[in-house]
Design a protein that fits this description.
The structure holds 2 protein chains of 2 kinds.
Chain A lengths: L10 H26 L6 H11 L11 H33 L23 H20 L20 H8 L3 H28 L8 H27 L8
Helix pairs in contact in A: 1-3, 1-6, 1-7, 4-6, 6-7
Chain B lengths: L2 E7 L8 E7 L8 H14 L22 E2 L2 E2 L21 E5 L8 E3 L2 E2 L2 H8 L21 H11 L6 H5 L6 H12 L8 H14 L10 H5 L7 H15 L8 H6 L1
Parallel strand pairs in B: 1-5
Antiparallel strand pairs in B: 1-2, 3-4, 3-5, 6-7
The chains are: A mainly alpha, B alpha+beta.
Chain lengths: ~240, ~260
């Protein structure tokens, strides 16, 4: 095996895999947030959007074919991202736990000198993974978080995502979980977007301010958009379709 | 100055260490941190106790021997200084100061505050050189080097290999050291021939030594006494990607350097 396929062997190569898979996932969260804004245009626009996702590339591509390509790509990105993170974390733990005072507390008086977000990547990422699982079971499959018969599955190519979202965000615990995760997603993006450029070697002192700005912009746009959906439903700005 | 010191004492690699508390009343604000430790050691010797072992050599901030985690910060609270150039005027009378060794898997503790940093030497052996016949010094300016590149190479070459970057890193990674040692060659014409092979060799050796992985946190650059920039790490990362695209594998001798 040669070339880029050998990247997985070194720590820096694993980081490159993390950065590239992260790039795909950043693109996804931006698109996901943008698409969901159609909720504010009413039930018809939002339900048509859900149906339209299956028809991307039609008639060149068959029903939901491109969507499945995207899904498989995203699943691969998630798996690679988590694999790289796990493997690198294990490597780092070996270094930091050696000679440690107790557990992973390396110093008697730990002093942090740089950003908080960088320290939340691991457990923040874990929270986001749990969220993704819950989010799929909740709004995509309708298995959790609904009263019996409340979730409407698609029928004859018609989607009822609008009402599903509205009924899905009636429970304050569920809304709270979504809101907390979005804060951690913001921190993850704030460090991750900048970090992606640093890892790929596309950063230096001239660009770092600009790239930090880009990270803040992406994190803010995604978090504010995503926070608005459950809040809008919960306070009644977006009500059920009749 | 009256000071209370909480110092890590460890007999050797295999014996668990512990914090011990010492008091001194004979520190002066004009002393360097190491001179203050000398005074404490004199007091310990007079009392018939084992003096605190710590690394030091030039005491001018250029050799890279002194280390010490002071109150949780590598080389203490001042920016861009080594412990030997940190003076007691940076502390207040009556302060309690915690003093620890560098803690990292690849830096085994030899005794008290002294760690074995030869893993750094092996990273340099893996690629921190150029394979060119040296001979006598060439005439100045026979190989043109742009001023801006010369400055960047010099900035990276300022690394004294003290290991503060590893000590400060929440991941116990030596990426700043490795990157500095690669960057000071990669900015110069002489370093181009082996540039990408060097990147993959040094990163592979870095991993083999048991250092952690960089997550771009940046604690290293903050504590670095020579203010090496994170830019060097980005440059090494890029060189490694190029090495992978070129299909370069770590050349033999990387692991052997460790054994030898």
């Amino acid at each position: 095996m040669t070339g880029v396929l050998t990247l997985y062997r070194t720590s820096v190569g694993k980081k490159v895999i993390m950065a590239l898979s992260g790039f795909v996932l950043v693109g996804f969260v931006l698109f996901h947030m943008y698409g969901n804004l159609k909720m504010y245009q009413g039930p018809e626009a939002f339900n048509t959007y859900a149906a339209g996702l299956r028809e991307i590339g039609y008639p060149i591509f068959g029903h939901a074919h491109l969507l499945w390509v995207a899904r498989l790509g995203l699943i691969a990105a998630v798996v690679l991202h988590i694999w790289a993170a796990t493997s690198l974390t294990i490597q780092s733990r070996k270094s930091t736990t050696a000679n440690a005072v107790s557990g992973i507390r390396r110093y008697g008086e730990q002093k942090r000198q740089t950003s908080y977000a960088a320290y939340t990547m691991r457990y923040g990422g874990l929270l986001i993974l749990l969220f993704i699982i819950y989010h799929l079971l909740h709004l995509t499959f309708g298995v959790v978080g609904y009263d019996a018969g409340q979730y409407q599955h698609p029928e004859n190519g018609e989607y009822f995502v609008y009402n599903n979202v509205v009924y899905g965000f009636q429970n304050p615990l569920i809304v709270g979980f979504y809101l907390i995760t979005m804060i951690f997603l913001g921190l993850h993006l704030f460090h991750g977007v900048w970090s992606m450029f640093q890892t790929l070697g596309l950063n230096n002192a001239n660009y770092t301010g600009l790239l930090r700005g880009l990270a803040i912009l992406i994190a803010t746009v995604v978090v504010l958009g995503n926070l608005s959906f459950p809040i809008a439903v919960f306070v009644g700005l977006v009500g059920p379709a009749v | 100055m009256r000071l209370t010191l909480k110092v890590w004492r460890q007999k050797n690699r295999n014996t668990p260490g512990e914090f011990r508390t010492y008091h001194t009343e004979h520190a002066s604000p004009d002393m360097s941190f190491l001179e203050m430790l000398d005074v404490v050691n004199q007091e310990l010797i007079l009392k018939g106790e084992e003096p605190i072992a710590f690394d030091h050599d030039c005491r001018e901030g250029i050799c890279g021997m002194c280390s010490l985690m002071i109150n949780g910060i590598a080389h203490g609270p001042k920016q861009a200084v080594t412990t030997c150039q940190l003076h007691m005027r940076s502390f207040k009378d009556g302060d309690t100061i915690t003093v620890e060794p560098w803690r990292a898997g690849a830096f085994p503790i030899i005794k008290d505050l002294v760690t074995d940093r030869s893993s750094f030497d092996r990273i340099i052996q893996a690629g921190g050189y150029i394979s060119a016949s040296t001979g006598s010094a060439p005439d100045g300016n026979t190989i043109p080097v742009a001023k801006v590149d010369a400055d960047k190479a010099m900035d990276a070459a300022a690394c004294i290999g003290c290991g503060a970057c590893v000590a400060a890193c929440p991941n116990g990674s030596a990426m700043l050291f490795t990157a500095a040692k690669a960057a000071h060659l990669s900015f110069l014409p002489q370093g181009q021939t082996e540039r990408y092979q060097r990147a993959i060799n040094m990163v592979t050796q870095h991993d083999e030594e048991g250092f952690g992985n960089c997550t771009n946190i940046g604690e290293c650059a903050v504590v670095c006494p020579k203010e090496i920039s994170l830019d060097t790490i980005a440059r090494l990362n890029r060189d490694l990607v190029v090495a992978a695209l070129k299909g370069l594998a770590p050349s033999t001798g990387v692991s052997e350097a460790k054994a030898g």
